[in-house]
Amino acid sequence: MKNKNCESCMMPFAKDPGVRESEKSCSYCFNNGKLCYEGNDLKVFQEASYDAMVKKGMNKYKAKFFTFLIRFAPRWKK
Ligand SMILES: [Zn+2]
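^ Those are the sequences you sent over. The predicted structure of the assembly is below.
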């Protein structure tokens, strides 16, 4: 079964505006052949994602909500 959401940030692939290079990750999390954030600190990743979303012009409340959802992504499950 194929993933429908990015395993790092939970973004639905259907909403990915970029060109995906990986089966498991969206074009934000994985590009130029590697993960943009290779560490495993959820907090650092969430902060970077939040900043990126706000920079793209997303409403801050929406960005906060999506940032919250990241913790449920397969990559961060312990
Ligand atoms: Zn992603």
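The radius of gyration is 12 Å. The first strand starts at residue 30 and ends at 31.

Shout if you want it in another format.
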